Amino acid sequence: MKFHPALFASGIRSIIRNENNMTGTHIYSTMKKCERGNMEYGKKIKKGIMLELLTFVILAGGAVWTKSYEQADIAANGKDFIKWVDFNVSYDALCLAYEMDVASLDQPVHLNWIELLAYAGAKCGGEFKESALKEIKAAGEKLTEEKVSMAQLAKDLKYYGYYLEAYSAVLDGYVGEYEVQNGASFEKCYGLKAFSPIAKTFDYRDYDDFGVARSFGYKRQHLGHDMMGQIGTPIIAVESGYVEALGWNRYGGWRIGIRSHDKKRYYYYAHLRQNYPYAEWLKEGAQVTAGDVIGYMGHTGYSDTENVNNIDEVHLHFGIQLIFDESQKDGNTEIWINPYNLVRFLRKNQSEVNKVEGTKEWKRVREIKTEDIKKGR
């Protein structure tokens, strides 16, 4: 029996009109039939709602899955700038691609580590498990033995362009030619020219904490990487650039924001030492060189009042923001990547420092020169 509200109301009106000609039993019987119809209709309505909700969830899930590929499609076809990046490149993949790049420097075919990673990303959907390592090795063999170009190798990979642009935005300033101080002269080198954010010989501990919950001020995700250590541990500029932000932030305490010379990367160093957070020469707009001592570890922050230690554990909060368009610098469209595997990788190159006697300062032992430094200055 299909129930309809209008028919139910009509039935009631009929009962009322004929009540003088109906017994109480007839009225009761008619009402029960209407109630049973109402219950059956209600059940069908509930089933319909549940079916619609299930359909919505499936479609919403599909929309989320599709959106990540829409971003890749946009970048691959040059329609717009990239809106989001999930940097899931593993430590092992970073090491493998880097070693292949450096080892092939003087060979007929010099492999580019970012291109190798982008190829594996496009082949494996951005996930870097064992299969991605095999793809990196296979690509290297084809490029060197068959003498094909990466453009030829990746021509059928729709999203290769996206991964190349995204991974270049992360890694462009990390590997290349540089000169390192050797006594009174400088020696030309090739390799890793970016540095760990923690100075050499200073211990720290960490784990992958990107995305965990934070609640001070408002509920949010942790968009960085915490490195726990001792108060006063020298903090190092990962890459050359210029100081874009310096001073107090209610969340990060004393903090430094450094922008790479190509403006694609913004490095955020927070919770620096109370009373003496920065290297004495540092100021907003100053040029920094990769490997410079820029500040000192502490536990300031979580306070509207400046110079307050409200963080329970001494640590450096280290963050990396990607910027494909200036509209992404501040606001709801910011792109922060998980730097955990990068930090592990950068431990291969830690800046050696010495204490400046009679001060709280530390200085790097050896200077470096790179092309991006010259262009930035």
Query: What percent of residues are in strands?
Result: 15-25%
Secondary-structure element sequence? HHHHHHHEEEEEEEEEEEEEHEEEH
Mean pLDDT score, rounded?
84
What would the CATH topology of the largest domain be? Glucose Permease (Domain IIA)
Helix content: 25-40%
Enumerate how many helices there are, as a single number.
9
In whole angstroms, how far apart are the ends? Answer: 83 Å
Number of domains: 3
The CATH superfamily of the largest domain is known as: Glucose Permease (Domain IIA)
Classified by CATH, the class of the largest domain is Mainly Beta
Shape: globular
Structural write-up:
- There is one protein chain.
- The protein has about 375 residues and is an alpha+beta fold.
- The protein has three domains: about 5-75; about 90-170, no CATH class; about 190-375, Glucose Permease (Domain IIA) (Distorted Sandwich).
- Helices cover about 35% and strands about 20% of the residues.
- It is built from nine helices and 16 strands.
- It has helices at about 5-15, 25-75, 90-105, 115-125, 130-145, 150-155, 160-170, 340-345, 370-375, and strands at about 175-180, 185-190, 215, 220, 225-230, 235, 240-250, 255-260, 265-270, 285-290, 295, 315-320, 335, 355, 360-365, 370.
- Strands 5, 7, 8, 9, 10, 12 and 13 form a seven-stranded antiparallel β-sheet that branches. Strands 2-1-16 form a three-stranded antiparallel β-sheet.
- The longest helix has about 55 residues, at about 25-75.
- The model is unreliable at about 1-40 and about 55-65 (pLDDT under 50).
